[in-house]
Please model this.
Amino acid sequence: MIWRLAKSLLKLREQVNELYPHRDKASDGSIGDLAHSQRKSDHNPNAHGVVTAIDIDKDLRANDPFAMSHLVLELQNSGDKRIKYIIWNGQITLPNDITRWKKYTGINQHKHHCHISVSANPDLYDNDSAWSIA
Model:
């Protein structure tokens, strides 16, 4: 299947790369692997061939173990309607309230990368306006 990443996530990744030009990308990802394809996941292409999730490696800046937590907090505080949920460090944001967390019970606890999923609405997932991160 031919697939592409949602334009909003391309923009987010571009901004993260600009903010952290020397960041580690070893745990970055977009389209899911075979294991993802066996279950429901935003890493799988939707009916339009669009992947609506990315993973961003936690090591944004050398010797700064809190950089990803800061980025996640900025995304939460932005209230951006494009965000469906965030998974980070063993927690997932609540449905319809990305400012609140609950324990994440999935296989991967997301301690090496942060997962960001965006809305299934094409008007939102392909909205490539700038994200409120600095």
